[in-house]
Amino acid sequence: MCTFNGERFLRQQLESIAGQERLPDELVVCDDGSRDTSLEILQEFASRARFPVRIIRNEKNLGSTKNFEKVISLCDGDLIALCDQDDVWRPQKLLHLAQVLEADESVGGAFSDATLIDADEKQIGKRLWEIHKFGFARASDFDRMTAIRLLLKHDVVTGATLMFRASMRTFLTAIPDCWIHDGWIAWMIALYSRLTFVNEPLLEYRVHAAQQLGVGHFNWQRESRQSDVDQNGFKRMVDQFEELRKRWTARPGDDFEECLGLIEKKISFLRRRSLLPGNPVRRALEVFSSLHSYQHYARGLSSMRGDLFLPSPSGGQKN
Hints:
It contains 13 helices and nine strands. The strands form two sheets. Strands 4, 5, 6, 7, 8 and 9 form a six-stranded mixed β-sheet that branches. A three-stranded parallel β-sheet has the order 1-2-3, with helices on both faces. Helix content is about 45%, strand content about 15%. The longest helix is centred in the C-terminal third of the chain and has 20 residues, at about 230-250. With about 325 residues, the chain is of the alpha/beta class.
């Protein structure tokens, strides 16, 4: 778990961990310099928890991604479940994710769906997979290359829903600065092992204005990430996939050439999107001529629609 000024929701998250049908072997918390009562809440919980709780306070603020990288490195267990400070875990979360990993040694990580709630714990009426447009029903249909091809289109794994093998840590670090931890971890599992899922919501994922990361940082009603709708967003994504290509070429895995080719096509497509012309006719021609790429490296028609109608500061278009 990573914490930072999380006193408002932290107690409820901790109690949901304590109420798991399968208790954790340990809870490791890295606090990123909270100035509220988060540390006191953690210490009180540690004094009565039925499992060891280790609390580490960072000497300087690392930010969410580097803080998660640190806390992952400190875990002693064979299976690691990531935990935010503001959600509510359903009682079967750890049990069901662990059962998947323990049943199949070829699986490096598993994630689940989640129900969205607001700051007052009211159901929003959406699930994470609806927003991520994840439509698979059976894990048997989600093989390694299917997972890779889906990640090329868009993110589908939220860190708070994820459990992975500690042995995967050799591939996870160091997380490049341009990546958010859960996106990078999902890619490392998909490339170097196998990513699967549990087809049920295993937590209540809280959406609120104070979130550092997550679906609270885009308009979930529009189901479109704000970071993908400007030129800086395209540049960030190009940087991300160039870092992914660098890691993959430095440490090749199975199906190396096929995966490298897909990553390079994604980079090329992102660069083309960042340079779409401002003229509406030329832009439309460019977009419609790239239909295949939008289907395989973006969100299909919704991304095309965004590139056609949302003007960029430079006069081109953005998604």
